[in-house]
Amino acid sequence: MTLKSSFPFAVRLIGFSPDETTLIDEHFAERRSKGYSYFSLPEDNLQDPDLFLANANEWKALVALSYLGPSAVRPVLLVGTPEIELPYARVPSPIKWPQLFKGLDELIEKRADTLSRLEASDVVTVPERRRRDRLDVDLTDPGEYIRMRRPPVIGGVLIIDKNSVLSDYVAGLLARRKVPVSWADDEIAALDFCRKSKISLVMINTSTPRVDPYRLCEVIKTEIAERATVIFLVGKSFTYDQPLARQSGCDGFLNKPVTGNGLISMFKKFLPQAR
Fold first, then answer.
1. Where are the extended beta strands (E) located within 127-228?
2. Rounded Cα–Cα distance for residues 41 and 55 (Å)
């Protein structure tokens, strides 16, 4: 199947240094008018990627892949030769750019064929991570284990925005799951609601007037609901400050406009009731 697309494909980079990431981004940018185009997702961007690009020379990258579970719908291309045998496509390291783009293009076309077959059969597949072989290596920070062992918070969704349009839409998406969705248009109202209600997920539209998303997030995570997930909805006029976001406790961001599928995917990650 030959796939012609006017939009770039989202790539999650795994195991590359900042300098390597910058170089890959530069080559992605140069390639945009020459066939299939690609862009890398920033580390905190919660958008689902179309495919993964992983540094096979980094053990942590291979461990991450064992948890992410690449598939025909979301494939991976390895750069380099791993020390263990893995059933994934790969290209040599150091990167030869024509080979890299050929490998990415082939995976995208195979992915398109798979998606077409799934759509034709009306089948949706969800990877079961417990059925996948995982690398027998432990590189997890002990503090991360403590966080992972805590039971998820079963609560509602709070959306901070200038109006209730998004919250009304989200309420419709989550109606069958019976997840309560609330709306606030300023920091005082948002904090008051968080103190009075059990919240699983807070979504802050960073363009909401009189709202400092970093300050609001920090107060929620440090004083009210430590285990709640807080994400930012980011427009083109907002510069996401990753160090400040992480310091405030932000769990990531989604670019606006947010699609229904993007929201549903995010809910499945962070809302126990939506899984």
1. 156-160, 181-184, 199-205
2. 16
Tell me which residue has tokens 């406009």. Answer: 257
Q: Give, for all 275 residues of the chain, the pLDDT tens digit.
A: 445 555 799 999 999 999 999 999 999 999 887 789 999 999 999 999 999 999 999 999 999 998 888 999 999 999 999 988 899 999 999 999 999 999 999 999 999 999 888 877 655 544 333 333 444 445 455 554 445 556 667 899 999 999 999 999 999 999 999 999 999 999 999 999 999 999 999 999 999 999 999 999 999 999 999 999 999 999 999 999 999 999 999 999 999 999 999 999 999 989 988 77
| 192 Rama class: left (phi>0) / alpha (psi -120 to 50) / beta | alpha
Question: Pairing between strand 156-160 and 199-205?
Answer: parallel
C-alpha distances in Å from residue 208, one per residue of 33, 161, 186: 36, 5, 8
Q: Are 82 and 54 in contact (CB under 8 A)?
A: no
- Give every strand in the sheet of 156-160, ordered side by side: 181-184, 156-160, 199-205, 229-234, 253-255
Alpha carbons within 13 A on the beta-carbon side of 266: 27
- pTM exceeds 0.85: no
Could you give the domains of the chain?
9-131 (3.40.50.2300), 145-274 (3.40.50.2300)
| DSSP 8-class letter at 221 | I
Vertex 113: Cα angle to 111 and 116 (nearest 5): 110
